[in-house]
Structures are given as C-alpha cells and as structure tokens.
Amino acid sequence: MSSEMDHQDEPRVATPPEDAGAVAEVEDVNAPMIFVVGIVFTLVFLVVVILLVALFNRAERGELERKVVEQRHEEVNQLRARQLERLGAYGWIDPAQGAVSVPIDRALELTRRRLAAGQPLGFEQLGLAQPTPPPYAEETEPEPAAEQPPE
What we know:
Blueprint: H1 2-9, H2 20-26, H3 31-87, E1 91-94, E2 99-101, H4 104-117
C-alpha cells in the first residue's frame, strides 16, 4: 500500500501524442511577417496622426479667422465709414471759437484759393505755427553766379 500511496502524491503529466511535435515545428513564429506587419501598422498610425494634426490646424485657423479676423475687419470697416462720414460732412468743432468742420474736398479748394491769393491759412488763429513748405515744393531756378571783375 505504501507504494500505491507514493504514486498517488506524484502529479500526473499528460504526454503528447507522437505526431504533436511535428505540428509545433510547422507553426513556428514567422518573425519577418511580424516585422512587416509592425512596420505597416506603424506607417498607417503615423499617416493617421499627421492627417489628424493637419485637420486640427485647419479647423483652428478657420475658427481664428471667423472669430478674430472677420470681426476686426468689420470693426475697421465701421471705423473707416465713420471717418469718411466726418470727412465729407459739415459740423461744429468748437462753437465757442467758431471752429467748423467742412468736407475735405471743400477744405482743399479753400486752401488752394488762399494760397493762390497769398492769404494766411489761419494757423495763427488756432495757435499753431505756419507750416513751411518742404524744400522740394519750391521750384526755383538756380541763380547765375555773379561775375567777379578780374584783378
């Protein structure tokens, strides 16, 4: 009985059939195929990441343009319209001093007339210095050199 008990304590190991070894050798891991599949999936992953980054950047630029550039463009257009309206309209600047705003075309015409007539432009009334024309504005002929008598 003791010999029967000794055999009961040992674990029983299943022995594979004789032809099982041949099947294991045929189904070995195909390392080159795993390498190729890994490279292909890595490339596909990188392409997907690059496409997603490009899509995100395009969407971000679109949102930036929609929220900032177009809004600022509208604000600039409104400001320009107000400025053009002020440049083309009559109005009071300071009624106490009698200062008025005239349309820019009319102001240029009046300034040309005053300059042609040699009248002051009215800068002194406003407390401003009379502007001097730039040197290239005066078209003067060079003075002939004075002849000196020979000694």
